[in-house]
Amino acid sequence: MSSAPFGPGSMTMPGLLRHNSLEGGVAKTKIGKLMEEFDKTEEPADVPNIQKAIIRHLSTTMVKIPRQVDSLATYLASAYSVRDRLIQKWNETQEYHERLQVKRVYYMSMEFLLGRSLDNSLLALGLKKVYSNCLEGLGFNMEDCLEEELNAGLGNGGLGRLAACYVDSLATMDYPGWGYGLRYEYGMFKQKIVDGYQKEVPDNWLADPNPWELPRPDICYPVRFYGHVTNSHDANGTERHVWEGGQVFEAMAYDVPVPGYDTNNVTNIRLWSCKKSDLFDLGAFNDGHYEHAMSSKLQAENLTAVLYPNDNHMVGKELRLKQEFLFASATLQDIIARFKKTGRPWPDFPKLVAIQLNDTHPTLGVPELQRLLVDEEGLTWDEAWDIVNRTFSFTNHTVLPEAMERWPVPMLEKILPRHMSIIYDMNLFFLQKVEKKFPNDRDLLRRISAIEEGSPQNVRMAFLACIASHTVNGVAEIHSNIIKKTIFRDFIPYFGSEKFVNKTNGIAPRRWLHQANPQLSALITEVVGDKSWIKDLRLLKQLEDRIGDRDFEQRWMTIKLDNKRRLAAYIEKVCQIKVNPEAFFDVQVKRIHEYKRQFMNILGVIHRYNTLRAMSETRRKNETPRVVIFSGKAASGYYIAKLIIKLINSVAAVVNEDPAIGDLLKVVFIPDYNVSVAEVIIPASDISQHISTAGTEASGTSNMKFVLNGGVILGTVDGANVEICEEIGEDNIFNFGCLADEVEDFRHTQRYRPVSIHPSLKNVLTSIESGTFGDPGVFAPLLETLRSGGDVYLISIDFPSYLEALKAVDRAYRDPNAWVARSIRCTAHLAKFSSDRAIHEYATEIWNVKPCPVPSKP
Predict the structure, then answer these.
(1) DSSP-derived 3-state class of residue 473
(2) How far is it, in rounded angstroms, from Cα 568 to Cα 764?
(3) What is the pLDDT of residues 174-217, one digit of tens each?
(4) What CDD domains has UniProt attached to this entry (predicted)?
(5) Is residue 851 in some structural domain?
(6) Is position 164 within any domain?
(7) Which of 471, 504, 701, 827 is catalytic?
(8) Does the active-site annotation cover 701?
(9) Catalytic residue among 418, 484, 666, 705
(10) Which of 30, 480, 610, 802 is deepest in the core (most CB within 10 A)?
(11) CATH code of 746's domain
């Protein structure tokens, strides 16, 4: 075991670390020998030893006496005992990688939506069964203890869940790599539904102790804001820049171990928290100026207090910018410190370091690495720029203009003056090269510049990331083609198309089938013969051989029904709505946004309700009961998205209480969607809706999760739906709607002509405006988006084909044998969408990183 697990624990850089490890002498020798011996001894994973470990943590870590022990304390003690085992593997992994000086990938993401860790860790270590027996022997139920764990508030949606899946795959496939992010004290928010409206309340996910993080007060880095830049010349006449003054905070590390499945490798996510105890002004406090004494400390802590502070106002924008720079600066300083321990020359930096920018949020790492190399390490501009270009790669996640991150130049000049001057130079040198290749094309230079002209000017972060990175990737084939035709179109003549590649997203099968759907996992293991499929989804193709085996098909559908019963019980507990688990479960769960078109879904529900109401009682008896399930959060400042939630709940209030309809149609909005809720919902779906306007969803990953669990998709020809269709076959997916290359023509037409409302849609809108679902005035702004708003997301265009697709689903479900065959094929053909495949492609084609499995102990 190394004396300083994870990174530069033994370095003596001024202002870098609060404590230094022993560099020599008798003490270090003795400690080293004892720690090596400790590393070699791992307690057997049997019931007596594990129970002993749990009891020890109950007694010493939790400081409990027997009558105080409850399921929360037992969960925490169990988690700490699992962490003990992880830390040993964790240290072995890092020491082994450091000793071999392997190349590591550093995955920079502002979000890591991890979900719960105890169940995931037990499955990875192969200890779920023995821990269940241990807890049962202590008088506790495993499921009750698992429920005590709060979801980590480190992400919002698909971006953060993707990052979590990728770190899982890095560990499982033995690739040396770390995740880097921020440790938010509060998550985005907890969502409550009050009178049908979303209400945001604080997500205090750290209210209980968090066994899955290790505070590292010895690893702190200074991060400066504001100040000024002075210029001078060194002995060689080279101009040097010094950034000084302003505010200096400290980023402190928290480490989160991430175990690989069925491997000795345990990787790490390092999260930064802005904390600095010496910011407290004791003199001011003693003089009675209490607020002044605390102000600097509070400013520091506010930086990492909340995931993505609301940026509807200038203070919020500045806080978010500071968050992004704190994250980028601390991460780059940490990576450099680790590299310097190797003693290798600077040109070798890209041989040991690959940095992936997960969207534009970490892009300030580009000018920060250039600054650190030039200003702090004394490299020339060209030497540093060569290292930057060979180190960074960039993943683009969106084509939506409002999601393309831009920072006002005046704000950057004020908060990060040195970085703004570096960005100016980066952009200037790039444009000079473009102009040399394409002379006299001023308009090209304007279009391709990282500095967008306007009042004020803005820095286009996606352009800056593109200029600095050796590779730019989209996250689905259709998305990657779109960004080459739109956002990065003007870059291709200069860089060449080979710089712009596709890496279709993937999901971790450990979390999204093995953990979330244990019955189906067991059935698949029975078919395959062992659990090897959990690391190689290509083996799922064997399931197709069981189609037509009525006994197997019955077992498959019994598992689906059991999962629906579990979800029905959850709905009754959380929403106080009783649903029939034998009904057809129609699910749309994801962030609430106009482009994802939950609005169109609820309009379709109203159409179904009106149709059922118009039927005779005799005819209604032939209809399949349906439960329509929504879940997802709207951004706190997104008024229209919040109205969509209100409309869903208002429709539910009417439909669910209509005695004429009964169980034929139920509408449910499940509040506070998170990873753990998803693990209950996804295995229970019969069909899931992924109905974004074509060309707007970069990829999506929830579609993959549903299909892996035998759920069928109703969706547009958008994002990863396209590739899922290619893998499972057109007969096993229900597609509808206009195509991506038709969208702009439709939008152009609707911009200059009155929106054409189909009779079926008109009838639905009339129902809302007549007050069937409450005060129509409440929904007027939402309905206006279809009319005077120009219907940007083309609901009026796609609604007729959407209704036809819903009818096709109804017809298909009436044939149970064909439906179960379709469900089995969905799971059998989803190997492409494993995050293991995605990470292998990144590692071999972008990062040039090789697996480095930690050998087992002798």
Answers:
(1) strand
(2) 28
(3) 999 999 999 999 998 999 999 999 999 999 999 999 999 999 99
(4) GT35_Glycogen_Phosphorylase (cd04300)
(5) no
(6) yes
(7) 701
(8) yes
(9) 705
(10) 802
(11) 3.40.50.2000
